[in-house]
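Appendix B: complex inputs.
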Amino acid sequence: MTIHTYTLGERLKGVVKAWAAVLIVSWIGVPLVISILYAFSERTALYERTPIPLSYSLEQIRFLLFEAGALYAVKNSVIVALLTVALSFLLGLPAGYAFAKYVFPGRDALKLALIGMRMFPVMIIAVPLVALYIRIGLSDTLVGVALAHTAMALPFVVLITSSVFAGVPRDLEEAGMVFGLSPIGVFLRITIPLALPGLAAAAMFTFLLSWNEVFIAAVLTLTNRTLPAFILTSALAAPDFFKFAANFIIVAPALVFVFVARRYLVTMWGITVR
Amino acid sequence: MAGRLNRAITTTQAAVVIIIIILAIVAVAITTRGPGEETTTPEETPSPAVQTPEKTTPKTTPTTSPEETTPVKKEVTLIFASTQMVPVEEQAFVKNKLLPPFTQETGIKVEFIGISYEDLSTRLESEMKAGKVTIDVIGDLHGGLDYFASNGWLMDLSKFGSLPDRTFPKILEDYSNLYGIKAYVPWMTATYVFVVNKEAFNYLPEGLTMDDVISGSSKWTYQALLDWAKNLYEQTGKKALGFPAGPKGLFHRFLHGYLYPSFTGAQVKNFDSQAAIDMWNYLKELWNYVNPASTTYDAMADPLLRGDVLIAWDHTARIKDAITTKPEDFVVVPTPAGPKGRGYILVIAGLAIPKNAPHPEEAWKLIEYLTRPETQVMVLQNVGFFPSVNEASGKVATGPLKVMVDGVSKQLNTPDSLVALIPSLGAKGGEFSSIYRTAFEKIVLEGQNPAEVLPVLAADLNRIFEEVNAPLPPPDK
Amino acid sequence: MRLTPKHKAFLLIAPAFIYMGFFIAYPLSEAIYLSFFEEGALSLANIRYLVGSPLSKFTEAFRYTLTITAIVIPIETALALLIALFLYNSFKGRDLILYMVIIPLTISDVAAGLIWYSILTSNGFMNNLLISLGLIDQPIQVFGSEFKVRMLLAIVVTEVWRSMAIVFVILFAGLQLLSRDLIEAAEVFGASWMQKLTKIILPMLKPSLQSALIIRTLFAFQIFGVVWILAGRNIPVLAGEAYYELTELRHEGVAALYALIIAAISLSFGFIYIRTLRARHLEVTL
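Resulting structure:
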């Protein structure tokens, strides 16, 4: 294809680069792919000594979902995650907007406080809540888990939405004003539409945060387990095939998310880990 | 600057936002009561564990609300609350296979509620106090039923007369008569057994025959087990003995229900005694020939199938998979005997009817159905719980289950049996198990001196029984 | 009446901060109460249990948590830096590699534990591969209390696999902010690769490196899911012990004490982080 001839040095560099790329991709990809293959293996094939299973079936996934009760845990996880997204956006979106568009005394200090809150470990949120939840009838409820997850996700939501709103060009908003839009009109017809993709990605991120959380969920629920809590408490004494299948079910939404929101990934995590 | 935009949100908007938030909080406060109740619909109650034959010990109080689970229909729907068959796999069996024939036959619907012992106990207590009983049938272990009976919460079942066409082993009959009433009907039994891969018989030590092991003769002792494991190791280089000593494994049951009774004659009483020290020293030596991955095994079916181990001890439910997958390879054998006898745990599950239960006649029909030999064989086939009636054993077809039934019945019939029951300690059950496991870790894995470790732990052990005010479990008293 | 912008801003942020305030203040005070009081009176029983009881694995847990942190963080930082540098210049397929590297960010700790379990268990990928290649005939056991080192290694590999992405994202974002002019200038003056790295890139990347290190250390002390799935209590860690004491042994006070200890460690690292962050341009980073 290319007629350009490379020098030896350039070729060597290319080869090294290609190998490095292969190495990086397989370091992340191979365990992921293999574990998914195992999830779809025929049960007996797992005891054969072949690197990857030779016969496949949906039996393990089906069993886990429909007979072992994982479907119920999935449903719980989805409910908790949606509640968490709703609640944390309800509380966090206005704050994010305020941080992005207003200058007020103590703004930096409050932002730092948010970052500080983000470092607050989930263990200390969860353990004392057990007793409180029993007292007020929230123990083993999905709302109870969602409330605690909201506390965990809220600082993220404020920080991410604030950066999303800050990314909406002021020029456009001011132009809207010039063309006679009311402040609400500007907000609804310019700011929100422009911020929407970023907000959607933030919502997905929040969803995933809750979907993946295990400590709070495992401590605060008993029968209404979320998926990670269900797996954590039942996987240990379960046969291998159960663990393999469980792995896929818990990873699948994350992979969908990576695919859908890949454009935002670096920036989003860039924000949240700061 | 942001001057113009500062006006982007007006007072009214700010007020609207705040009102929305308040409404949301109110909505949450209201819905808070919702999910707890919705989720008690038993079809949806998932089990916390797969293949955990023991009752789970939860930490929170139940949010169950029985009113909602009773549909407003004319036909009778029995509430069957059980601490057994709670694992997901087993619940699926109960709902899809076990109960439908009963409903077809009698027209009585049954709602099966898989529940933890603590939840059941709390619920029963509050129902008794409120005087409004919703549970029709209780399925629970002997220990729990004993507690319920001691509180006077159970109906005397002797008024229903005896059940036709079935006989219960004497030991089960004896246990089920509590506090002067027939407290429960024995439902299922379970135990923990040794499974041997037939390949291991090629390496039997001198003086021990395959027949000794399979029949549980007096030569089948813990010393013989040690010799066998040693022989296996010397001839194959393989540490072929395995125990479920993983984080969720049931190895503590082996310690307090098998080794302790066999070596000291009691589970708890002689925890810190010379006989106990001898026992620990024995286990230390045995451990040289135990597969080191044992401390990761939670259930022995996988290690047996993989061939990691050739001899394993575990709960019958947790080795069932191995035997059904490769029935030709394995044989279930009685536990070995120690100096004080052949100690083993017998788990007895029974069916009881609470006092003032709404539908006692229908409940008794369900009990009758569940203890029919055919039903019991079905339970054995599907979940691996063993029958409580003698007639059932004869109805098991040859095959993997026969392997298990034979092994279990041989264990039950050994003359030097020393039956151990798991103490019912409620919330302290975890700590009880943890004490035996800690002793194991310190003495066997870390090599500490048993004479130093045991006294400290014995104090903790006695404290538990004092705190719970529980009697020592058989065979201690 | 119209509110001033200042008041509007406060009204907008108030709900979030009130919510957070409650979910920090309440658990914190309750945890202190649970840890140090028994039936209303000051009691050191939980501390005595923590350090003295044979059932408690506190010292071990503390040691293991520290060990895992000390091994994982340098490895993943070095790896993340290498990959970030590798991906600094755009090339064909770079985005694909970028997405690959970031995938573990979206994967929960429980799932990461399960993924590596399926690789490392005795009938997992690694053993199956080695056996079918004829390199070994008995599977290599990784899990089991006799193999504490191997188990630790498995945890380290899983943690590096899972959390390297966080470090990577911070460093990669930091690299993007570096002035390309400076690097190009260095190239014009014939600086070697090594010189560019040590004289220009690393010094300029220092703030990002600092953030990455502090944040990862802070979260390393909260490690739970990976360890619980792979090793249970064979490798005790602080959060795992909190979970075990709470759910298995029902020692609420002891669990609260563990939570407090984790919080104290995390918050002191958080404090250091905010101190170093304050010195920087907040606007750029947020």
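DSSP finds 21 helices and twelve strands in chain B.
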